[in-house]
Give the backbone structure.
Amino acid sequence: MVACSFLAAPLAVGCGGGQTQAGSVASANQRLSASWRLQSFAPVVSLDLPLQGVLAAEVGTLIVTFNQGQFTAVGPGVNMTGRYEVKSAAGDQMSLMVYDPQGVAHYFTAQFAGNLLHFESTDKPWAGYGALEHV
């Protein structure tokens, strides 16, 4: 379900030219600190019917809010909180770990593109590509 919080292209994240990694991570955290609406998600592997239903209900309605290492995800079938950590960043790209309420880590790569945040998750069952829109 956490992957629904992030649902677009594989990204390579490296060191930013001219900005320290710590500065790049701080900048990514600042840009991420907002509310985002799930706009799309394309799973890599077809979901079973119950998960397809969950996904269909959440697209366009799920709101994920990031703030100072904590996130909330609220939608028709989701109401959760957890924590996140930006692991690395360079320019508009970043990698991050999102920890669900049970403390299980989920890895994401993401890229800012205007008012969108494109992301990729490799963790099943929510492995896939998606986009969040800044609200």
Notes: Helices lie at 21-32, 49-58. The chain has two helices and eight strands. Confidence is low (pLDDT under 50) at residues 2-17.
